Amino acid sequence: MTTLSAQPRFLRSITLDRANKFVSTDFYSDINLYSKLYSKRSSEAVELSVYSVPNLKRIPFEKATKQSFHPTSTGTSYGPSWSTHWFKLKITVPKDWAGEHVELIWDSSSEAMIWSTDGIPRQGLTGDRGNDRRVEYTLLKKAKGGEVIDLWVEMACNGMFGTGKNSLINPPEDNRTFYLSQVELAIPNHAAWKLFYDMQVITGMANELPNETARGQEALYALNQVIDTYDRDDLEASLKKCLQISHEFLSKKAAPGAHRVTAVGNCHIDTAWLWPYAETRRKTARSWSTQLRLMEDYPEYIFVCSQAQQLEWLAHDYPKLFQEIKEASKKGQFQVIGSTWVEMDCNLPSGEALCRQFLYGQRYYEKNFGARCKIFWLPDTFGYSAQLPQIVKQAGAQYFFTQKLSWNNINKFPNTTFTWVGLDGTKILTHMAPCETYTAQADVGDLVRSIRNNRDLAFSNQSLLPYGNGDGGGGPQRAMLERLRRMKDVKAKDLQEWKGELYFELHRGTYTSQAATKRYNRKLEFLLRDVEIVTTLCMNLGRDYAYPKADLDLLWKDLLLNQFHDVLPGSAIELANIDARAIYKNIETKAKRILEESLRHLYQSKSSGDGSGDSFIAFNSLGWDRSEIIEIPAQTGDNLQQYSADKNTGYVRGMEQRCSYSFIDSFEPPRLNANDFATSQGHELILDNDFIIAKFNQQGHLISLYDKHETRELIPNGQPGNQLKLYEDVPLYWEAWDVEMYHLNTGKPAGSGKARIGEVGPLRATIIVEHRLTDHSTASQTIVLTAASPRLEFHMEADWHENRKLLKVEFTWDIISDFATYDSQFGVIQRPTTYNTSQDYAKFEVCGHKFADLSEHGYGVALLNDCKFGYSCHGNVMRLSLLRSPKAPDLNCDMGHHEFAFAVLPHKGTFHESNVVRQSYQFNVPIVVQSIAKNLLKEHKPISYFEIEGAKNVVLDTIKRAEDSDHIIIRLHEAFGGRAQFKLKSFLNVQSVVRCNILEDDGEPIEFVKSERASGWIVLHAFEILTLKLKVK
Ligand SMILES: [Zn+2]
């Protein structure tokens, strides 16, 4: 008689579910494999005492360990959020544990760090349940039994992702407590751990490989077999059999020629985000000491680390740990990469600031780790400037790595391994990790995605897998390294190219959130520019002058720090934003002081004692002549053509030479136009100068803008400009980060305005508009037209108290153009004004720096700004985003007082023929007015220190002292996208000139004719950045 087999069918879904339960921490965790990971445990072995640091202070080890500690035990809770508690651990290893591997298990439901008694951080710990849980610390690889060991643990009352209420990005909760749930010694069961890791990989394969493949089916079969074989009543023998099954399955090799995935450990530590900078300093020690421990056990393990600023903090706070890291770096296991000072935002910083990120980063790596970085590593930044390929190459790096565009919410980016072609044509090999994350878990899914999402397999059969927990730090887990060991088995042709910016189709709100941060950044970038120019001149012209190199380095590094990709974009918590503003305030105060002192040094023969003067000089740091109306403090006895209403300020017309100064007495106040030029006619308020006539209605709307020279009206009938509009601003999830496309449907006029005439001329005329935006918010506009130019300025103050509303200003022009031109780093970008394709409409809100321009044949108009970045130009409508009001992660984002300005600049010709670039600089770089003692003024005539002869499209941006010598560095760029041929002229006694790169390495010499004080002809191609090093006597 035949008997049927007892074997039941095995079904995929049920088997997978069964495998998950077999290793689960939540289900059957008293009997499953998870429950057998430790063979012995002892909580009595650890004696605990604690010292709680008052006032949320973070104190160093030396200080903490001198405090008085009192006994405590598990089961207690510690708080509030952000507080620190130090624990003294006295560990007595049980006598009968001789010969065993002993671990300390610590779970305080928070972040914590283990310290040795000699004050070296040994390892970070992360409690609670998440993916980033790390609670084990190897105490002894082989115990003697009975030994007594002292350790310290520094417990930080925050999780890996801060202290947000319920959801990740919610504002932090101030009063959280963290529960010390587990402190014990334990002996791991190595066989159980091995099987645990095997099961993770096999389950991953069963999950991720297609069911119809043999390998997928075999994985499923192996899972079932292992769990059938597992016997908790005969554990050791059954584990042996289980491991035979799993090894047999895992030892089958991949086919030759399979895709090659290179896995590197990394640990993305946001320099500030859901925690302040001070916590980041500790996160680096926790995360990196942990990696050193893993390297001890896994010699094949390579970890990459990317932000120079974090290493500098670590060297300062944890010098012994820093030495250990340097040792590991010599062995090649701990590799520094990245090239920049921090992982910065790449939309908002100026071109010069991007250069400085590399200058400070590369110099740091070279000095401390012996070499510059070849890789520009920036996995988490919200879009990538088209000038980056050129800047990266000029800063000594060759490759670019990212992945962020995988978050695009409209179009899939078409490439994985490709050549990125920058604005000027510079090419750089770029890789966007196809696993689409920088926090990969190194599981089967990550490997499968590395192939499935790889869009360039035809060109390159390789990809990078950056794995390790991140954002809040942490880095790779032991489990990830174990999984990789099990998955070990797995040539470039002409690559596809992508030209231009890597526009990120998400996080478009980061051009506007945290208005104060953005304003400081813009203003201080230009302030440091002026400071460097004047101090460099002092160094060359003044006597007994020491260039304040150390001070400037500190100011620059702080500015660069705040350009981190969650700070400047405005996506950090309030604590971090308060820190950032304090840093900015300090930069501003110090930079202004240096500027004032150095200007006086440059122009006064000796100190006037109290520092005040009885007259003024005006300094123009820009490389071209400018004519502007300057404000000076009114003084008794002066006889100026116009004063402000309160008589505190007088107006004079300054005719400024390029990169030079004027003495205020030499101004010939021209009687330009005897008539006042602000008037009202009926219901209209009119500003009228030699260039334009601007008419406003009673609400302050611009109802007519007429160009007198071109006899041309710019406002289409019935579509007035200067419309303030409010939009509903409710994105899908990432509040501070995103504005979504649908907000454009919700624009409504923002309340009512009431206009009146302020100043009437003859040098400066104004219209004042008081706006009641809503029941909660008000704004005022001072609309300014001066006698000097057609630039119509709107200076605004706002008192802003909204909830998820977005304020924009809108202008509609009588111009037809399918493209708008936006200012960017050292160049401009054209983007469509249409919504034809998905690539077009994905750019419904874009980043522009000092201006956006809309031009047709023969004529155009630009909308300039002094601290805003979010533009949306559609058809002939130009909008500038002014203020947002997201509630997460900073509940108080942008609430309160604001100041900002924008301006309308009509111009003859297209953008390329216009003076928009220069005007946008002038709007952002005011002429510096400095009081000076007239009798002490030095005897030198106003003369231009530097000028560009022969090419209007070249901008002289930077003048600074060389990093390592008293040479002068100047940086110029071609600004419009065409060829330039020019001579550099200088009043200074220039001896020689060489080309150099951003890192200031010497290159080819350039001819300089001393008798003419001019260089030979220099040619720049479109958007080229040129750095020159000048030797001056
Ligand atoms: Zn990040």
UniProtKB/TrEMBL annotation:
Gene3D superfamilies: 2.60.40.2220, Glycoside hydrolase 38, N terminal domain, Glycoside hydrolase family 38, central domain, Golgi alpha-mannosidase II, domain 4. Keywords: Glycosidase, Hydrolase, Metal-binding. SUPFAM superfamilies: Families 57/38 glycoside transferase middle domain, Galactose mutarotase-like, Glycoside hydrolase/deacetylase. GO terms for molecular function: alpha-mannosidase activity; carbohydrate binding; metal ion binding. InterPro entries: Ams1-like_N, Gal_mutarotase_sf_dom, GH38_C, Glyco_hydro/deAcase_b/a-brl, Glyco_hydro_38_C, Glyco_hydro_38_cen, Glyco_hydro_38_cen_sf, Glyco_hydro_38_N. One of its GO terms (cellular component) is fungal-type vacuole membrane. Residues 505-584 form the Glycoside hydrolase family 38 central domain. GO terms for biological process: mannose metabolic process; oligosaccharide catabolic process. It is an enzyme of class 3 (hydrolase). Belongs to the glycosyl hydrolase 38 family. Degrades free oligosaccharides in the vacuole. This is Alpha-mannosidase. The lineage of its organism: Eukaryota, Fungi, Fungi incertae sedis, Mucoromycota, Mortierellomycotina.
